[in-house]
Amino acid sequence: MKGINEQRAGLLSGFGAYALWGLVPLFWPLLKPAGAIEILAHRMAWSLGFVLLALLVLRRWSWIGELVRQPRKLGLVAVAAATITVNWGLYIWSVNNGHVVESSLGYFINPLVTIAMGVLFLGERLRPVQWVAVGTGFAAVLVLAIGYGRPPWISLTLAFSFATYGLMKKKINMGGLESLTAETAVMFLPALGYLLWLGARGESTFASEGTGHSALLVSAGLVTAVPLILFGAAAIRVPLSTLGLLQYLAPVFQFALGIVYFHEAMPPERWAGFGLVWLALSLLTWDAFRTARRTRAQVRAAREAAAREGARPHPAPLPAPEEPAPSTQP
Q: What is the 3-state secondary structure (H, E, C) of 228-272?
């Protein structure tokens, strides 16, 4: 019974995390008249305060000394901080400038870009279905480029920056809360410096637009921290394959908001491009479940054979699903 309750809590936490990430396009327009860079700087600065508070509550400090003694790891953290800064900044700008649908596409195609990077930089080998999915994703980009009259640069930049961020996170190999703390610590001084410079020029909106506006800018850090904490709670309670499916909730919500709430145009050629992307993701999901099911059957057969022989079974670890579950979202 306890296990069932734990799994239910994990599913609710995962749904909450990805739902919040999916609904965040409703939040950024509330921060106007602040520009995208000012919003980004506040997000980076206040996020550090909230994640430090979370670490204080959880009493998870031992990793800091270990990280400081590893210059290479610190360098990777700095690269991760730079790429997520690009990702966050472009996402905020795209939402506040009427490109919610195009930004959602970036997170739809992110798994395909992540797989391609795994082949290029980690020497991973793809199964035939995965090659078909990646090829379908490439065709979708071509169709969308025709539909937009230009390459979908917002989507591609979001997808590649987030995939690069995921690659750095894999190399850093730290928990979600810890790595975000390290990244926001790297970003804190540049963000604070920019905000002070903006204030000195009289262009900051933090104090000039009223208390409500100031509170909303501060809460940008909370918008970053709360989904991450929920994601962490889900990650330890539900299978990674489940999180791999839940991650599609965020771009689905963003896509729906772009059409229904922000009334962005979706001509037929864009529907065709999105349809190809969804086909590619369906292929990836089917292949991941098929592979996981086959591996479980092989492990079960090995255990039964070992039991028949009177030997002690040594279960092989299950492979991770092909859909990467990101540690943070826009």
A: HHHHHHHHCCCCHHHHHHHCCHHHHHHHHHHHHHCCCCCCHHHHH
Cβ atoms of 152 and 104 closer than 8 Å: no
DSSP string, 87-111: HHHHHHHHHHTT-HHHHHHHHHHHH
Q: Are 220 and 228 in contact (CB under 8 A)?
A: no
Q: How many CA atoms lie within 13 A of 322 on its CB side?
A: 29
Q: Is the pLDDT of residue 129 over 90?
A: no
Confidence bin at 1 (pLDDT 50/70/90)? low
Chain Cα centroid distance, residue 44: 16
Residues 6+ apart with CB under 8 A from 314: 306
77-112: b or e for each residue (b if 16 or more CB lie within 10 Å)? bebbbbbbbbbbbbbbbbbbeebbbbbbbbbbbbbb
Q: Which residues contact 59 (CB under 8 A, 6 or more apart)?
A: none
> Sorting pLDDT into bands at 50, 70 and 90, what band is 241?
low
Number of helical (H) and strand (E) elements in the chain, helices listed first: 12, 0
Residue 265 corresponds to which amino acid?
A: A
Please report how many Cα atoms fall inside a 13 Å half-sphere around the Cα of residue 23, on the Cβ side.
8
Q: Identify the burial level of 272 via C-beta atoms within 10 angstroms of its C-beta, where 0-12 means exposed, 13-18 middle and 19 or more buried.
A: middle
- Burial of 5 (C-beta count, 10 Å sphere; 0-12/13-18/19+): exposed
**pLDDT > 70 fraction of the chain, expressed in percent and rounded:** 90
Q: pLDDT tens digits for 208-238? A: 888 999 999 999 988 988 887 787 677 677 7
Are 50 and 222 in contact, with CB atoms under 8 Å apart?
Answer: yes
